[in-house]
Fold these 2 entries.
Entry 1:
Amino acid sequence: MNSTTVKQLDPVQLNVILATDCGSTTTKAILIEKINGEYRQTFRGEAPTTVEEPAADVTVGVVNAVTEVGELAGRKLIDENGEIIRPAKGNTGCDIYISTSSAGGGLQMMVAGVVREMSAASAKRAALGAGAIVMDTICSNDKRLPHEQIQRIRELRPDMILLAGGTDGGTQKHVVELAELIAPAKPQPRFGGTYKMPIIYAGNQEATEFVEEAFDDDVKLSTVANVRPILERENLAPARDAIHDLFLEHVMAHAPGYNKLISWADAPIMPTPGAVGNILQTIAERQGINALGVDIGGATTDVFSVFDGTFNRTVSANLGLSYSISNVCASATLPMILRWVHLDMDPRELQNHIKNKMIRPTTIPQTREALVFEQAVAREALRLAYIQHKEFATTLKGVQQQRTVGDTFSQNTSGQSIVDNMKLNLLVGSGGVLSHAPNMNQTAAMMIDAFEPEGMTVLAKDSIFMMPHLGVLAQVHPQAALQVFERDCLIYLGTCIAPRGFYRSGKTCFKYHISGNSLNQSGEMLCGQMKRIPLGFEEWAKVIVEPKRGYDFGAGSGKRKEFKVRGGTVGLILDARGRPLMVPADENNYLAELTSWVQELDLFPENHSK
Amino acid sequence: MAKAYSPGLQISQRVLHSSRRILPIPGDVLVKVGETVSAQQIVAQTFMPGDVTPINVANQISVAPAEVPDCMLVSVGEEIQAGDLLARSKGIFGFFKAEMTAKTSGTIESISHVTGQVILRGDPLPIQVRAYQSGTIKEVIPQQGVVIESEVTFLQGILGIGGEAYGKIQFACQKEDEPLVDSQLNESMRGNIVIGGARMTGKAVKRGIEIGVAAIISGGMDDEDLKEILGYDLGVAVTGSEHIGTTLIITEGFGDIAMAARTFRLLKEREGAEAAVNGTTQIRAGVLRPEIVIPLDKNSQADAESHLKQENALGVLEVGVPVRIIRDPYFGLLGQVGDMPTELQTLESGSESRVLEVALDSGETVVVPRANVELIEG
């Protein structure tokens, strides 16, 4: 079966689900089984991805990873012909097999739009939402001359191009101009010289004919509905669907072994980040919450958010902890990184150390100093990626607003970020430095320092980076995906409570009273203080906070607020350092405060307990 | 599992090495299978479609885009020279006609009645591929390029700056732990590949560029010096397209670090030989390291045993194999793999990891994570 569409399956009949994620370096397989009426993730296995020589067939890695899962589960999943056995019978086979893929560098796209802040931004959102890496955005106002734009298109070798521009019925000239720039540049696809470059046109529908005229037979042009039919509305779904279809039909079909993998899968194979976005959207929608997910890797950092039902994803290329560590340091600057380091370190040695990590990216910190420094870099990588995300996830720009007398003193314009830390309910971290930190207090501290959550925010980490698998599963069986997400995917770290308001040295920030089954305590937090209160997994407590004037927990400046908080492996963290997080100017004072945070959160205990 | 894969840098005294030399777009291959080629010989060439210049004719002669095709004095496919008349407006009652001339030469590729834009394509750009490695043509890939094979001394570095360069191997340092400073470079090194020892200083690199050396190879360098030479901070290790006036290769890493004794010795053995180097580095999926290729002369005998030894050792981390530690606190130290316990061990950082013992050349034994060593291959 060539599965570009979901196979018709009866969810009730699905008892054994096999899912794989073919990453750039590792193929991860998980088994999900229905136990006592509930879906649980039971076993996992992994094997090196095999898209490159000598195997040059992605299914070899899939079979290896699945075989490992099968051995651990005592279930025969692969038959004598090396194929996945379906359906499940006793201890043999599975009912459904699904997969995601980011092997071979994932899906790399170039987008083009008329105005950077409008149609180009919508096109970029569509591409990122589909799980692509956007290599460049060409637009009429990107300050490059036409010949420079053409040169850039010639240099890039994207997997496909998305072209947008103009509202339906609006001006046609500019979008046709863009098509006339792309056509003579004759962009070459990244994989293989034998297939035609796919170009998706999602702009002014009345200009379709002229856009078609601009391109010759060297490209495969598909037209879908406009991503911005009117200024006030985005319509990203048709472009995203077209990207997914072309990803399967063109890009993946040319990667080694993917034709076989596509025929094995019972649902369309999704790009890994697209699948992660899918599960986060499903969760936010089902639970009615605002959620933020981050995946920090060696080369890039992906940030996903769902605020008030609007999904956004950004990929910060070149913000990562191994291949891109040097870029993080260049972007953030060394003093900004060192503000998270409580130990004495030599800057020259650190600079050489950063470069050595860049050229030998697979090494791991052996000493405590190396770990402290790496986690400091991680905080800055996450912070920068989040800034980029906030700048990208905005309300639509160019929308006319009706203003009343009441808005006289309001400075709000269109294009404001929709990411609001005060509204954030759930923050999920994944990626090596967060998932494999020696203790989870470190994971929580990195996330709080980088994202600066306000009000009440639940912190969690993705236990074994299972979100991609669950993202595809959500397409086929949302209920199973949700059950596994809640029970096995997330490890709840606890809850962070922090007010918005500036740091004022020596002043009281807020008073608190905590009550619960195992807790009953009150106290006062001074500005700059942090406090960790153990509150176990699946434990809940009531927290009443009374902020001083100038501090806000979401009810207004100085207003009392009550929260029902969730425990976890770390517990409850009270953070009175102020928002935005400011560093005291006096270095000695700052070091003393930083050391007190490290001690209070027990970040680097002597006994290295997990 | 007693074995783990931990690829390192290849350092071979003698190896049958092949280079794949491919054009970026289809073209002509100029050599045949079995032919002997020299390093700088051109083996394949092609022409890329010329640069494109868009000209907004409608704006320049003040007509509506739809009128542009009728105002054009040249048609699609026609060749024009700079200064040629391109278009003329109809004017008002035959008067006040506006004209425009071409600023560059090229061929008219398209005339748009929607945007009023004319696309001018410049002369084709020649692309040539050199042999890089002197040897015999083993395979011709029609319209794409060739595979060249020969016996060479082959060494990989850890990071390079700049692309391909050719020259004679000449030593500036006499010991592998001697830093390369500016006073060690002189005019006799022009056009040669200069070998240092430990860290190459920023001043030494500048002196090398002044003299016009083909390349500088040494154990390490300081990040600060690299930043100054490049004029920017290298964010990701994807290099090869820099034009700093020479090619740089560091063999070990950043900081005060001596070149591995074996690498230094091997280069010393080949002092005076013609070599090709390539600083191109790509540390992403599909790693590409900088390399030094020194063809062996035809009279020397093949050492079949050394090939065999190298193939056996390639890529497998096991007891007794030579390794280099690639992370602090023992960064740069060399030794042999001792015990390889299978259980996870807690490191000083608190992380749990699979480790191994390394018997250092100094006689001391240290324990490091397996991820923090690389094989010395070849």
Entry 2:
Amino acid sequence: MKLTLRIWRQRDADSAGAMTTYEVDGISEDMSFLEMLDHLNEELILAGDEPVAFDHDCREGICGACGMVINGQAHGPERTTTCQLHMRHFRDGDVIDVEPWRAAAFPVVKDLVVDRSAFDRIIGAGGYVSVPTGAAPEAHATPVPKEAADLAFEHAECIGCGACVAACPNGSAMLFTSAKVVHLNVLPQGAPERESRVLGMVSAMDEQGFGGCTNTGECAVACPKGIPLSAIGTMNREYLRASVKRR
Amino acid sequence: MALATRTERSPSLIGFVWHSTVGKKAVMAVTGLVMLAYLVAHMLGNLKIFFGAGEFNAYAHWLRTLGGPVLHHEWFLWIVRAVLAASVVLHGVAAYQLSRRDLAARPARYERRRARTSYATRTMRWGGVVLGLFLVWHLLDLTTLTVNPNAQQGHPYENLVASFGRWYVNVVYIVAMLALGLHIRHGFWSAAQTLGANSPRRDRAFKATADGLAALLTLGFVAVPIGVMTGIVS
Amino acid sequence: MTEYTRYRTGDPVADTKAPDGPIAERWDRRRFEAKLVNPANRRKHTVIVVGTGLAGGSAGATLAEQGYRVVQFCYQDSPRRAHSIAAQGGINAAKNYRNDGDSIQRLFYDTVKGGDFRARESNVHRLAQVSVEIIDQCVAQGVPFAREYGGLLDTRSFGGVQVSRTFYARGQTGQQLLLGAYQALSRQIAAGTVEMHPRTEMLDLIVVDGRARGIVARDLVTGAVGTYFADAVVLASGGYGNVFHLSTNAKNSNATAVWRAHRRGAYFANPCFTQIHPTCIPRSGDHQSKLTLMSESLRNDGRIWVPKAKGDTRAPADIPEDERDYYLERIYPSFGNLVPRDIASRAAKNVCDEGRGVGPGGQGVYLDFADAIRRMGRAAVEAKYGNLFEMYERITAEDPYEVPMRIYPAIHYTMGGLWVDYDLQTTIPGLFAIGEANFSDHGANRLGASALMQGLADGYFVLPSTINDYLARHPHDEVPAGHPAVAEAVAEVTGRLERLLAVDGDRTPDSFHRELGELLWDECGMARSDAGLRKALGRIPELRAEFWRRVKVPGSGEELNQSLEKANRIVDYLELAELMCLDALHRTESCGGHFREESQTPDGEAARRDEEFAYAAAWEFTGTGTAPVLHKEDLRFEYVHPTQRSYA
């Protein structure tokens, strides 16, 4: 396949960026999108140009490192991560726009690399169970109904890639935050910190400069792990409940 | 194992809620629902126009005596007006503040954007502005009668027929009611989501209710100018 | 014979920390005998932890909970992305919830046997003991393990064992366990007890007066090279499987931290013990950048087969039952498709070498779920393996519900690593290695679902107990400003980066990595021979020289420069690969993941030679390209008597 790529190039956080056009040839449909960019980068290096910087690591859709907006869609046209998007979903001669996640809370570091450390700070504000090592009771001391365990798992699948923020017209982190709130709040182990967790995480989310939720649902459509939009509703309920109960 | 204990938060529940995006959104949801409830009553009352001037004007008069003798003349109406005014202001201020925040949170656009959301969702902000402007005109026209061509206190039926006698008023009114329908269509479901009443099981029911309410209110309100235009009401 | 292969055998190395006495009491005794640090004094001690995977994340969180000041590093943009996250299948623990005859003793036995008797008994027994506490800890953290309808934890069985002791969270157990550790770590970061440095890569170890006192690290965003000091350094930087270029490791997983520590004096043990995972998706072409694992748990219900006839190109559905060879079930009737990884991998290689492989290039075997779907129903198969099937289909565009999966072995894990004693301390005092970075617990082959167990055992329970002893016994002092060892380490790091940028040759870093990887896969992969290893040992120094002559690294060192990061890691691979081949050459027996063609039984099974090789080979660095010194740690088996492994 032969493709025209229009890729966002930006030297560093302080520089202005621009879309730059590249032609690539010899793309196999079995390549992943990142392998296609590898191919471009190998050519750029040999031509004496700077390769395109992008975050990636596991390349099997679980670490959450990769992510770019492809033709206006976070992670591209399929519901998956960029590393698991294969070129068979494109056609010979396509023009493909590749941009970084765009959100005030995710400043561009270089090219397609953005700073998502705001997510870590949200988790640090309550996305855990306070159980120091060694303090745990026997695992079977508290049975957890299968439905609760499955619901928790479904929300714990979040990989923290940031596609939800990138897709949201408001740059909101509600889906990310609510996934963790639901995961821990539905489990008996998370119950003691149920209120402080949601209150802490929501205020951290606001402090990091994410926008609010206008219930557009873009986040859940973009999420490669299928975190449901209902998570946001549940977090809202938890938040209001905790606000009332908090004293 | 030295973890700081959580610091005390601001004492007032309302202040606390108002300062978070989720809380502010909840305020919008509650005020939106208040206004929605009012609109349902308002729309039903409007339909009395089809029973003639006598009944419609008597209904308008009754509204002023509602709650008596406990409430003084028009007190009920003023309470309703106060609640509505507060709702409009809170809804609008919260929307303005949240919108500013949202726009700041997403300063750059994408080169190519595929809208995957419904028209109703995308028009919430401008639809809200349109409704706000319409509300001002609507009050000047039929409540204060400032711009009403008939402007007779105590004769709402005649004032209304006079107002809808002008074609451009009908156009403005109908457009505004379509905007209202769209606003409710996304707004009602959104309020359920914001207040945490929604769940995967209830989602379809809420969406259907939202569609039903939007259609009902739009048709109910639009029936009046159409009635005037077609001469059913004169 | 190159100069490099003329290695010398030095003094033996021995673990001096594990107490004698009954094996079941050793861990308790060690904890009792270890000196403690007064809680009030702990905050004066700084511990550097490199890596935030299961081992590093859990260690950082636990040390901080204990009151130490922790300074932690990861090259990823967030500690949550360490490659432990990609582990799929599960985590072993001797809970015996199934009442199926499991016990600490059995997990200990299975692990020693599964490792083909090349692991240290004391360590493995401790691992089995601690395993039960790990599950308790993770459940309390909110790790959503799979549960049964009664609300209790579900388990499944895994390769190499006959009990059901593997706890799992669908096919994402590593992710869920890592997020548990990450959340515990995040809590400490927020509390200010852990100073986290993401996007920062350790490039050298600072050794002052014989003790590990800090690291040199590069900020990957600004390119700034900085020094960080501590009272002890813990390496939790993972394995070195990426030396093969194509592996199931994350693209940026690398050996730099451990290799630099090795260059500074830490012995490197058993580098040739690498694990080839039998169930990976075969490569689809030269563009392939990494390989994707399909969880071993698939072997619980999938049946592995190839056509009986060579060069049979019919579609799998067209091959009748009696023309199929379910070779694992045929050769190993009692374990069948659940034989350990090394055996399953080699069997796949053998049938492919016979010309009976399937798919492009004949490099694949079928993993067929047709029987399972018939037996359990499609819905049950979907519930158990749905996400794996989806992943397979996404990558290959084939539907595994309809067409059997094609799998082929790939490099997955490295049992070798920095030599450590019972306290997990390397031969450099104050330098500890945990998780995959050390060599300790898996011998010559790791059993499935044991990597997660070992990483968390080391990080949550073992290191936080043993490091106290070191910290309590050594003076708490500052590294003198301007100490020559510090300046020398910084100069070496910056000098190397400058040299890489200065070559300005005509080959990309990746092209060297690919070439090295292919060489290693061919000569030091699933089967190794004297001739092949010598060939590789001849080629590696040439490739290294060519690298320094022809590599092209664009950009500068003062910015985010991913080519520079990659090239810098390849420098270390080019040295490590040589040691791996030498280790493989010197170990003329077959054991676990190390199969020497010269040492096999008449029916082609690995032949171990305990009289000569019942030791761990710990290598001492003497210089790039110069022969290392071999230090042997003799392995004594008091509780599990070495036998030829039999899974037939």
